[in-house]
């Protein structure tokens, strides 16, 4: 099994080193790793944020473990050369259309949530976000209205094949959990959402064991804060998923905790923390490595067929938190290394 390690910029390399230590402790040398630069690091080394050699490694690998990209030193570059283009390019080139973002409260961290502890404790959900369509990739531009006003426009479009494949991921994910799927749309207003809803209902016929319901996105946003315990799996489009998953992250505490998986048709995936390169704390040994460690666990479960090892890592993270280890974002003083050491000790 070959894993591509793409550490990237800022705290990316710092947290990926710790994820690697945890993987080594669990798997020994069962995995081969190859590392390549991406983002600002790749721009500085090779003149492009996603060099061919990095993309080729990502294609060859069974899975990709990604740190973060983003580099203030690249702010003045033209858009095609900016670090962020590397992750967009990887998603597009590899067809990574399904983004899975689990959000679960670690019981010990109820006080870190933006919600009241008794509400936060009920959170255990997965957001399945479509990643390669919607208003992000429709035609966009500027034009002038008949009255001579400047107008901007972005076309929102989904075809039925795009909806069907993300619907299947939603149902399959729900099937492995509590068998409840909530499809989030804005079908009272948007044609795209009406098609989305039609296709969800069609696909549901293949999953009679999963309970499907539908929520408008405005109501879903409210329910996520009011009573998040009602959700098991949420499936939604690119734009709504972007907004709801950031909202969900604050409901379970720190951005430094949440992992994600971006999967293609065959389950090959790219795994990354949801946080960015955090230039404000880079190089200081302060970053919380848990999102990266939990991303490695997701990689074992979804791409490498090692669910039991993933369970072990997640249990060790919970035990480390229960033992009191906390980085600064969680109100503690542990260094990146010390936080990972606590996980290793729990393993
Ligand atoms: P980028 O452009 O790379 O996405 P950003 O500034 O938009 O960067 P983040 O890098 O996610 O967003 O940082 C947002 C805030 O969260 C920063 O103050 C950062 O220090 C903090 N932060 C992000 N990740 C972590 C982490 N793993 N541990 C501790 N704090 C973090
Ligand atoms: Mg960011």
- Total strand segments: 12
Q: Count helical runs.
A: 12
CATH architecture of the largest domain: 3-Layer(aba) Sandwich
Bound molecules: adenosine-5'-triphosphate, magnesium ion
The major beta sheet can be summarized as: 10 strands, mixed
Counting structural domains, the number is: 2
Q: Give the strand content.
A: 15-25%
> Which CATH top level class of the largest domain fits?
Alpha Beta
CATH superfamily of the largest domain: Isopropylmalate Dehydrogenase
SSE string: EHEHHEHEHEEEHEHEHEHEEHHH
Distance between the termini: 22 Å
Overall shape:
globular
- Rg is 20 Å
Strand order of the largest sheet: 2-1-3-12-11-4-5-10-8-9
Poorly predicted parts: none
Name the structural class: alpha/beta
Give the assembly state of these chains: single chain
Mean pLDDT rating: 95
CATH topology of the largest domain: Isopropylmalate Dehydrogenase
What can you tell me about this protein's structure?
Residues 2-343 form the Isopropylmalate dehydrogenase-like domain. NAD(+) binds at residues 276-288. Keywords: Amino-acid biosynthesis, Branched-chain amino acid biosynthesis, Cytoplasm, Leucine biosynthesis, Magnesium, Manganese, Metal-binding, NAD, Oxidoreductase. This protein has 347 residues and is α/β, with parallel strands linked by helices. It has 2 domains: 1-97 and 264-347, Isopropylmalate Dehydrogenase, CATH 3.40.718.10; 107-253, Isopropylmalate Dehydrogenase. The protein is built from 12 helices and 12 strands. The strands form 2 sheets. The protein has a 10-stranded mixed sheet, with helices on both faces. Helix 10 (290-302) runs antiparallel to helix 11 and helix 11 (307-322) packs across helix 12. The protein is globular. The mean pLDDT is 95. Adenosine-5'-triphosphate is lined by residues 11, 68, 70, 255-256, 275-278, 280-281, 287-288, 291, 329. Adenosine-5'-triphosphate (ATP) binds next to loops.
């Amino acid at each position: 099994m070959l894993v591509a390690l793409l550490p990237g910029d800022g705290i990316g390399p710092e947290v990926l080193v710790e994820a690697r230590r945890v993987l080594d402790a669990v798997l020994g040398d069962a995995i081969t790793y190859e590392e390549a630069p991406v983002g600002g690091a790749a721009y500085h080394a090779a003149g492009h944020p996603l060099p061919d050699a990095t993309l080729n490694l990502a294609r060859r690998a069974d899975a990709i473990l990604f740190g973060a990209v983003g580099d203030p030193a690249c702010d003045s570059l033209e858009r095609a050369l900016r670090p962020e283009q590397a992750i967009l390019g990887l998603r597009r080139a590899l067809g990574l259309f399904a983004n899975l973002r689990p959000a679960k409260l670690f019981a010990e961290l109820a006080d870190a949530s933006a919600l009241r502890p008794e509400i936060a404790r009920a959170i255990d959900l997965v957001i399945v976000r479509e990643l390669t369509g919607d208003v992000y990739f429709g035609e966009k531009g500027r034009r002038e209205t008949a009255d001579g006003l400047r107008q901007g426009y972005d076309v929102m479009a989904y075809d039925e094949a795009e909806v069907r494949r993300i619907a299947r991921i939603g149902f399959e994910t729900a099937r492995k959990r509590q068998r409840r799927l909530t499809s989030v749309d804005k079908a009272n207003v948007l044609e795209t959402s009406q098609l989305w809803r039609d296709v969800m209902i069609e696909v549901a016929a293949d999953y009679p064991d999963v309970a499907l319901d539908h929520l408008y996105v405005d109501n879903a946003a409210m329910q996520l804060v009011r009573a998040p315990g009602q959700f098991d799996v949420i499936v939604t489009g690119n734009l709504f998923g972007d907004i709801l998953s950031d909202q969900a992250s604050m409901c379970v505490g720190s951005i430094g905790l949440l992992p994600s998986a971006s999967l293609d048709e065959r389950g090959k995936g790219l795994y990354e923390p949801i946080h960015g390169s955090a230039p404000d704390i880079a190089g200081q040994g302060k970053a919380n490595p848990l999102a990266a460690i939990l991303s490695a666990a997701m990689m074992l479960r979804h791409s490498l067929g090692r669910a039991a090892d993933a369970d072990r890592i997640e249990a060790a993270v919970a035990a480390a938190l229960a033992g009191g280890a906390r980085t600064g974002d969680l109100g503690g003083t542990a260094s990146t290394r010390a936080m990972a050491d606590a996980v290793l000790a729990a393993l």
